[in-house]
Each structure stands twice: as C-alpha cells, then as structure tokens.
Amino acid sequence: MTVNSLNQARPTQPLRGHVDVLIVGAGISGLGMGHYLAAGQPGKTFAIVDSREAIGGTWDLFRYPGIRSDSDLHTFGYEFKPWTSDNAIADAQEILDYLHEVVDEDDLARRIYLQHKVIRADFSSETAQWTVTLDRAGEQFEVTCDWLFGATGYYDYAGGHRPDFEGEEDFSGVIVHPQSWPEDLDYQGKKVVVIGSGATAVTLIPAMADDVEHITMLQRSPSYVMPQPRKDPIANGLRKLLPAKAAYAVTRRFNIGKGRFIYNLCQRHPKLARRIIHTVNVKALPEGFDVDTHFKPTYNPWDQRLCAVPDADLFRSIKRGKASVVTDRIARFTKDGILLESGKTLEADIIVTATGLKLLPLGGIQVTVDGEVKDPSKSLVYKSFMISDIPNLAFAFGYTNSSWTLKVGLVCEHLCRLLGYMDRHGYSTVVPVVDNPMIETRPMLDFAAGYVQRAVDLFPQQGATGPWTVEMDYWADHARLRKGRVDDPALRFGTTVAVEAVSGQSRA
After folding, report:
1. pLDDT tens across 143-169, in order?
2. Where along the chain do the CATH 3.50.50.60 domains lie?
3. Are 192 and 208 a contacting pair, CB within 8 Å?
4. Which of 289, 299, 415, 474 could disulfide-link 285, Cβ–Cβ 3.0 to 4.6 Å?
C-alpha cells in the first residue's frame, strides 16, 4: 500500500462513537497492535488515531540525512511479517514501505484516523469506559472506548532536547536540530559541525560527508561505536535455501541470541568487551588516529546503548578525510563557528545540535479515573504494559538494550489473551493493584543515558520483585508474557454493566 492508496482508503470524517479498543499512535507499535487485534480478537472493534498527517511515527517524523535503524530488521521487524530486504540495517523509507505493507495486509487503513490528537482520557468506573477527548484541526470532540492502548513511543514529538549555548545569536550560519530538519537545507560544499556523539550524530556524518566541504563531530565525551554489516549474510543466505517465513524465523532467533550474548558479555566482562571494541576501532580508523581520546568512553559497554555504524561508514568517512572528530567542551558560539574551552575554534556554516531527545510518557495525555488525575510517576508498572491503579489501560514500551519491537510483539499478544480471558469470564474491568505498600522501587527506565536521566522522574516506577519488574531480556518476557498466565494475583477483575454505546466501526 502506498501513501496515496492509504489516504484514499482511510476515513475522511472524524472518529465518532465507541470502539472496544482505541490505539493511540500509528507508528510501529500501534500498527503492530492493530495486527494482533485483527488476528487474535476479530470480534473487537478498534481504531488507530495519530496526531500527525502520516503513519510511521519515528520513521516519518525524522527527515535528517541517512535516517536508519540502529537494530537489525530481523529483530526490529514484526514476528508475524518476514523482513525480506537484503539490508538488515534499513533506512527510513524501507521501514515505511514495510509498515505500509502491514496496513494493506491487515486491512488497517479503514481504522486509521490521522490528525487526531488525544488531549485527555477519563475512565468511569460506573460505565467501565474511557471518555477520550480528541482534537482535529482545532475542533475538540469525544469518543468512548473500553480499552485505551498507548502506542505513543517514549519521546516528545513536539521537539528534541536543545540546550542553550552562549553566543548563539552571534552565529551567522544556520543552527538546526535533527528532529526539525528543514527540507530545503542546503549543505552542499559547506562546513558542518555536528554536536553530539550518539546514534543520530554517527548517522548524519557519513550521510552528509560526500556533499559537504568538511563535517566535524564535536563531542563532550565519546560513545562506543561498532561497525555492523548493512547486509546480513546469514539471513540472505537462508532466504535462498528456505521459505521466507522459515528463513526469517531462524534468523530472528539467531539474532536475538547474538544480541543477548553481546549484551551479557559487555555487562559481565566489561574489560574484555572494551578491548574488543578498541581493537575493532583501531583497525577501522586511520593509522595513528587518537582512538583513546575520541572512541574510549569512561563508562562500560552497554551501560549506554552502543552506536552501530553499518559497513563502518563513519570510520570510512574519517579515513577519506571528509569527517573528523573533536572531543572538547563548548565555550561559546561565535560569528563563524564554535569556540572551544581548549581555545580552538571550529569554523562552521551549519551547526547541527544532535543533542538528544525529550522523553514524554503516554504522549502527554492527561489521564483521570473517576475525575482524579493520575500521575504515572506515582504508580508502578505492571509487566511492562499496564500501570497500577489505572483500569483498562495498556501501553507499549520496548527494550533499551535490544530491538524495540521484540517486546512490543509480546505485549500486544499478551493483551489480546487478557481481553479474551475477560470476555470468557464476563469481566469488563481489570486494574493492577500493589498489595505490598513497602515494595522496594526503582526507576522504570534503569538506564544511564543522558536523555533517559533527564526525564526518568516522569515515568512510572518499577518494583524489585514479581510482575512489577521491568525485564530487559526477551526470553524472560517470553516466559512471562507469552507463556505466563493472564489471571495474575496482582490484577483485580470487575464486572460493570456498561451503558449501551453505538459503534462507528465495522467489525473485522
């Protein structure tokens, strides 16, 4: 399905009436939930709403040069739909094409309502329903649903993290953040400085290097950067020998295991992992390059996410002399560039502030239960997909140490099982309840990255034991979510005779 055919097939009128499940977000998580509902709960009505003008979430929002996945698509893709491109590390357009295929195959277009922003949601225990306020083109209106599913991702779509730099007003060139990349930005033959050392910076630099006069990655401190083949020889070989689904299943399982092995190696044997990464970097960079200054972080591998560079493209740009790395602190911006604390000046026509994201739980939706505003940060997260004391609300939140979608699939499948269980037993509500008020807690996002630490207090907490822990291990979640029971002792099921509602959605 193309963008044009999607726009022709999706509804043109605002969403009205009632649906069994309202999915907020038409990115990889929301479309995945749509598939699982259509396949696993065909009697349920549902709609997918998104505030943006297109599906795809992250992959449509970010338009900077080279935007690509930092996980292989055999694990970042859906379990139910094989990834058949030769590229395991895929650019945004390939991923969007894949998502459009999912929309087509699951007949989701008729359920997708774009430019529908969710403002707030209020749950009524009396009716066992959510009343959801949406905004479309300045008009606010309400719909009702039995379940609300947050597929909003975890960052703020309104804008990225953008620190203020002294002297910005003096700079005569262009300052741009990757999350707000101008379509008409001309960087041909220009001097470019990219502030940052994370996944965005290491993507931008090789993508722009051939077109600019020179591009510099300016970092306050280094990140771990590892080359990774853009094409997976094992996956592509298996597709020649096996049917697509079988080849994909084998590749997916192998890559899950490989990713887990690398993560555990880094956590359990950090000195060995450091040596391996250092050796790889030395071989990939020019002879005499100061690897210890520019690519040797102070923290251990996988205390923060590793930056993957497909086919060593960043290092190749440095070798060709088109890109360089400077590790220093900014004193101030000047008319012609950036003055560093060392006294050195970096000349620039364009400065790219790849300084990170702003995180935002549940897309900033205000949630109330019986008129009481709920603060997610005061609650505990249940099995990584529900929040204590909030009924009939679920959300998708992927892994920080492996492919996001691995967890999303397990969560969506588990929720569909939970919906089926409630239907069989006549339940209309379910809410996670913490029985132990003395339970030890810690942040839900137990990750050292700066963008996480800036917003960690906004998110729910996790507990130390039981269903209140947040697992960052696919196989632990596989046992808990796919194989585990849905009638957990921490859940309180209830029955309420809901008011009769007229559905505006046709059943699948």
Report:
1. 999 999 999 988 888 888 888 999 999
2. 3-158+358-494, 168-231+270-353
3. yes
4. 289
Residues in Cβ contact with 482 at an 8 Å cutoff, skipping those fewer than 6 apart:
410, 413, 414
**pTM metric for this prediction:** 0.93
> What is the DSSP track for 167-178?
TGGG--SEEE-G
Where does residue 343 fall: left (phi above 0), alpha (psi -120 to 50 degrees), or beta otherwise?
left
Q: Which helix (H) or strand (E) holds 430?
A: strand 429-432
Q: What is the mean pLDDT of residues 438-443?
A: 91
> Strand (E) positions, 359-504?
366-369, 372-373, 381-382, 386-387, 393-395, 429-432, 441-443, 461-463, 491-494
**pLDDT tens-digit profile of 357-382?**
888 888 999 999 999 999 988 999 99
Specify the residue for token string 């080359």: 227
Tokens of 342: 């060392």
The closest of 52, 22, 131, 146 to 367, measured between CA atoms, is: 131
Residue 123 bridge partners (DSSP): 130, 369
Instruction: Give me 11's structure tokens.
Output: 């509804």
Rounded-to-integer distance, Cα 204 and Cα 176, Å: 12
Average pLDDT over residues 203-224: 96
395 pLDDT tier (thresholds 50, 70, 90): very high
pLDDT at position 159, please?
86
Tell me the residue type at 419: L
Architecture of the domain made up of 3-158+358-494? 3-Layer(bba) Sandwich (3.50)
Q: Is the pLDDT of residue 503 over 60?
A: no
Long-range contacts of 482-487 (CB under 8 A, 24+ apart): 482/410, 482/413, 482/414, 484/414, 486/414, 486/417, 486/418, 486/421, 487/421
What's the token pair of residue 367? 């949630």
Q: How far apart are CA 109 and CA 143, in angstroms?
A: 19
Residue 500 has pLDDT above 50, yes or no: no
For residue 310, pLDDT over 50 is answered with: yes
CA–CA separation, 96 and 92 (whole Å) = 6
Q: Are 475 and 260 in contact (CB under 8 A)?
A: yes
CATH code for the structural domain at 168-231+270-353 = 3.50.50.60
pLDDT of residue 1: 67
> E strands along 89-224, which residues?
112-114, 117-124, 129-136, 139-150, 174-176, 191-195, 214-219
Residue 17 gets which letter from DSSP?
Answer: S
Q: Round to whole Å and give the CA distance between 351 and 264.
A: 37
At residue 497, the pLDDT reads: 61
